[in-house]
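User: Can you predict the 3D structure for this chain?
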Amino acid sequence: MKPHMIAVTLLLIACLPVEHVRADPVEVYWDAPRRPRRYLYVQQPPPPPRPVVVVAPPRPVYVQVRDPLPLPEPEPERVDPYDTRAGVIVGAAAGAFVFFGDGAAAPMYQLHVGVGIGAAEFGLRFDLAPGAREVLVDGEPARTSLYTAGAFLSYRMLGQARVHPIVGIGLETLFLNPDGAETGRAFGAVARVGLELAFRTGSGALALGLDVEGHQPLAISQGWRGDRLPFMSFGAHMDYRF
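Assistant: Here is the predicted structure, written as structure tokens:
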């Protein structure tokens, strides 16, 4: 029973007459107060953290493929057409002699052989001009042939060019042979200028060119019936290099 109910019961008993109290006893029952309920909360520990492996997606790689640029074509290696194995030169020319004394001109033919060493050429030249001019033999005009034989040195310039200027000098012997008379001889000098173009062939090189030569007699023999005036020759030549 609760405490306030017990208090009310005792108050009522005290207010009643004694005889009633004695005659009718009152039984009082005491309920011990109940202890308040206690609640025990048991909290379970949280579960241990579980590792979570997060795999990041790979980053996309963008590859741009372009057409490759064309490689520059290598320049063909330039081969010097004059660079042959043996360096032996054989050639011929055709042109004309022009004499300054009387202004006469005559056809001229030339043969030459030589050896090429780099841009230089050493060789022998032979000029032939049959019936080149007229000279007096015993007071009578006679047709005279002119021949020359000499050694020369030529040099080719501008090695990287297509067309090469050529200069040369040499010494020669001149032969003047009148019809029916003794042959006269003279010693002279010669100078040469020209242009030349060469082409490579299977076994060597072919050179074509134009040149002008000046001839000057220096010393003459007693049988020389010409003069000492200079004369010139010009023409086209063709050489073959082995």
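The chain has a mean pLDDT of 81. Residues 88-241 form a domain with the Porin fold (CATH 2.40.160.20).
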